[in-house]
Amino acid sequence: YQGTVWQLLILAELGADGADERVRRGCEAVLRDSQDRLSGGFATDRSKKDGGGLHSRVVPCLTGNLVFSLVRFGLLDDPRVQDGIDWLTTYSRFDDGDGEAPTGWPYDAWQMCWGRHSCHMGVVKTLKALAEIPPPRRSPAAQRTLDDGAEFMLRHHVHKRSHDLTRDSKPGWKRLGFPLMYQTDVLEILGILAKLGRAGDERAGEARTLVASKADAQGRWKLQSTFNGRFVVDIETRGDPSRWITLRALTTLLATDARQQ
To answer: What global pTM score does this model have?
Structure first.
C-alpha cells in the first residue's frame, strides 16, 4: 500500500487539503495513469499501448475508492471524475446469488467482483463514493444507485449473509480498522448508511449494537485491525484507543440517534 493510489486514499480519509499542490499532483497522476479512457472506470494496471488505465482491468472497489478521494479533494466538477461517477452508476450491480451471473464487459474478467453475488467490497466502495456527493448534486442515476446499494446492504443486515442471517459475511468485518483500503468493516458500512439516513433501519440494529459495544469505559474505540507495516508510515497502534475510529463511531451513532428522535 505504498503507491500513489493508496496515498491519495489515505490522505482523503485523513482530511487532507485538496488544494495542496502535492495532493493535486497525485490526483492528476491517477487520472492520467489509472483511469480507463474508454469507460471512465479506474484500473489496477496501466495500458502500455494507449496510456491510462487498462480497459480489461477496471474494477469497482478501486473505482469507488478513487472517485471518493477525488470528490473529497474538491474535483467533483472535473469531467474525468464525472466519467468515474457515470461508470459506477452504469455498471454497478447488487446481485444476491439468486440469478445468472452477469456477462459482457466489465463482468467477464472479474468473477470475484461480480459473479452471481456482488462483492460486498465493491458495493461498499461504490456507496462510499456516491455518498460523498452532496445530496443536491446527485444525479437521478447516482441516487438510484445509492438507494439500491443501501437496500442491498440492509438486506444483509449490514454484515450478515442474507440467506442465513445467523452467519457473518466475513468475521473480520467485526474487527474495526483504519484506514481500510479495499477492505471494509461494520463501522464503515454503518457510517455510509448513516450518511444516507438509512442506519436507523431496524435491519441495522445488530450492527449498531455491535459498534456501540466496542467502546471502552472512557468512550473510546480501539484499533483492532490494521495494515501497519505495509504503509509508508504506520497509522496509530493496534490494540490502543484510536482517534479515527472513535470519531467515526461517535459520528455514526450520534447521527443515527438524532434521526431516530
So the answer is: 0.96
